[in-house]
Amino acid sequence: MKYQIIIPAHNEGNFLSDNLQSVANQSLTPFRVVVVNDHSTDNTESVIDHFTSKYPFITKLNTTSSEEHMPGSKVINAFNKGLEIIDLDYDFLVKLDADTILPSDYFKKIAEIFHLNPKAGIAGGFIYEQDKSGEWILNHPMDKDHVRGAFKAYSKTCFKAIGGLKNAMGWDTVDELLAQYYSFEIHTEDSLAVKHLRPLGKGYNQKARLLQGKAMYTMRYGLIISFIASIKMAFKHHKPKVFWDNMRGFLKAKKEKSPFLVNTAEGKFIRQLRWKKIRAKLF
């Protein structure tokens, strides 16, 4: 199958070489890889140049944006810049973080998933991070049917159906909710272990948590589901403040009447899906 990869990269010089080498080593070679150098001030560009000189399928795209790292908007802005120059002839499209290392058969198996299951809309493996002893440990605080935003692969039909990626915090949740709304399936593959070189949540701060609450509002979760989801997040992070920041963000977005990411029908489906999962865990 024909696939293309977009890699947003802002000051990723410490990780990008390992990332791109793992992409170049894939047993199923990508048709094109666009590395978006997003306003980097370190050696990110020179690393990209090194790989573009060795591998003709790797392309560099320089762009300028804010230096502030905010989950959601910055990375999707860069992704969308890359989206503008990819070839429109592909079977699946990948949004890949620059601080990951993929096993060599990663995209061969992803291609098999999409080939064997026409209903598969989003696919991916699982993240592993090093603990203090240097051992690679599974780090997946979400439900097992969730593909992490660091390495999301979308079938072309699914990507078009969901309207691409939302430029907001929560983009890697709403994409899966909308995929299911349009009758696509989310496929996670246990055998695909991806090494994540930067600890989970390192770039998240109070402002990001407020945006998380805003995301719950804009995805039309409603107050009760947002309340439950915020409690769950606080427990998983072992930080009660996460709950309060999330709810503050939700209530602020509601007061300001922030625009929704989904329409009324999609929002109704999302709430029904969330309640279904909550009941399944309770009973």
Automatic annotation (TrEMBL):
InterPro entries: Glyco_trans_2-like, Glycosyltransf_2, Nucleotide-diphossugar_trans. It comes from the Bacteria. Belongs to the glycosyltransferase 2 family. One of its GO terms (molecular function) is glycosyltransferase activity. Residues 5-145 form the Glycosyltransferase 2-like domain. The keyword Transmembrane helix does not apply. This is Glycosyltransferase. Coiled coil: none annotated. Its EC number is 2.4.-.-. It comes from Arenibacter antarcticus.
